[in-house]
């Protein structure tokens, strides 16, 4: 089963105990008129627990899903559960203290949850934002693992009328095509095998992480903490 998630940056300084206090017991209900009746949709946060420098929890949300049955559109309530975790990193040389959030969901859903968490914690959206990995740091990360690179996408291409370049294959980091493309663009997305964890992983420069190998939720969390957070 593919595991996906996205990393975000919390703007400003916030203590994880304060985050836990604001999220603990959060529950919101919404009545949505549907046909001749109303659907009761609940959003809540559960399983909060603080362990060392990390706060873990689960974001649970009801939504209406369109289902087609014998030519009719029927909206039925569904429930999605997305694990998330905040990590507080202390100040280090060249890097101020900061708090990072990872939501274990596909990109669009993770963005939506990040905005909702921003509203719960800060009243407004925009206080939890996308991360940006420096292209040169991303390139070094790739070249430390490139013996088994499967896919590379390049953006910011300087060739007229070309917006992106891509390479597919095996051991792409050792090819002349990789070197040539790197002269014209920056690595945006890579699929590679982690030397440290042995997992096949896709990573983008704005913090989207997808593990294609068979892995557990805990292995996803550990991979992100070990290899991705330090890139940001």
Task: Please tag this protein with its features.
alpha+beta, Alpha-D-Glucose-1,6-Bisphosphate, Chain A, domain 4, 23% helix, 232 residues
Describe this structure in words.
The chain has 232 residues and is an alpha+beta fold. The chain has helices at 16-23, 107-122, 135-143, 176-184, 217-228, and strands at 3-10, 27-34, 37-51, 54-69, 72-89, 98-103, 128-130, 151-155, 165-168, 186-193, 200-204, 208-211. The two termini are 26 Å apart. Strands 1, 2, 3, 4, 5, 6, 7, 8, 9, 10, 11 and 12 form a 12-stranded antiparallel β-sheet that branches. The chain has 2 domains: 3-130, Alpha-D-Glucose-1,6-Bisphosphate, Chain A, domain 4; 135-205, no CATH class. A hairpin with a 3-residue loop joins strand 11 and strand 12 (208-211).
Mean pLDDT across the residues is 91
Unreliable stretches (pLDDT < 50, length at least 5) are: none
How many strand segments? Answer: 12
| Spatial shape | globular
Provide a short characterization of the protein structure.
This protein is α+β, with helices and mostly antiparallel strands and 232 residues long. Helices cover 23% and strands 43% of the residues.
Describe the secondary-structure layout.
Layout: E1 3-10, H1 16-23, E2 27-34, E3 37-51, E4 54-69, E5 72-89, E6 98-103, H2 107-122, E7 128-130, H3 135-143, E8 151-155, E9 165-168, H4 176-184, E10 186-193, E11 200-204, E12 208-211, H5 217-228
Antiparallel strand pairs: 1-6, 1-7, 1-12, 2-3, 3-4, 4-5, 5-6, 8-9, 8-10, 10-11, 11-12
């Amino acid at each position: 089963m593919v595991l996906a998630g996205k990393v975000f940056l919390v703007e400003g300084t916030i203590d994880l105990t304060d985050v836990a206090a604001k999220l603990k017991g959060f529950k919101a209900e919404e009545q949505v008129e549907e046909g001749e009746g109303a659907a009761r949709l609940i959003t809540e946060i559960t399983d909060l627990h603080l362990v060392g420098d990390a706060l873990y929890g689960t974001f649970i949300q009801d939504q209406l899903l369109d289902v087609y049955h014998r030519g009719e559109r029927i909206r039925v309530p569904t429930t999605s559960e997305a694990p998330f975790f905040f990590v507080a990193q202390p100040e280090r040389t060249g890097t101020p203290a900061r708090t990072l959030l990872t939501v274990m969901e596909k990109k669009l859903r993770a963005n939506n949850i990040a905005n909702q968490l921003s509203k719960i914690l800060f009243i407004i959206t925009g206080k939890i934002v996308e991360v940006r990995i420096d292209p040169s740091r991303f390139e070094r990360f790739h070249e430390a693992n490139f013996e088994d690179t499967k896919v590379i996408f390049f953006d910011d291409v300087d060739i007229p009328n070309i917006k992106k370049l891509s390479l597919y294959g095996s051991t792409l980091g050792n090819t002349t095509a990789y070197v040539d493309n790197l002269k014209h663009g920056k690595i945006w997305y890579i699929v590679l095998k982690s030397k440290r964890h042995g997992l096949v992983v896709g990573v983008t420069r704005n913090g989207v992480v997808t593990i294609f190998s068979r892995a557990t939720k805990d292995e996803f969390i550990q991979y992100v903490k070990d290899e991705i957070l330090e890139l940001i």
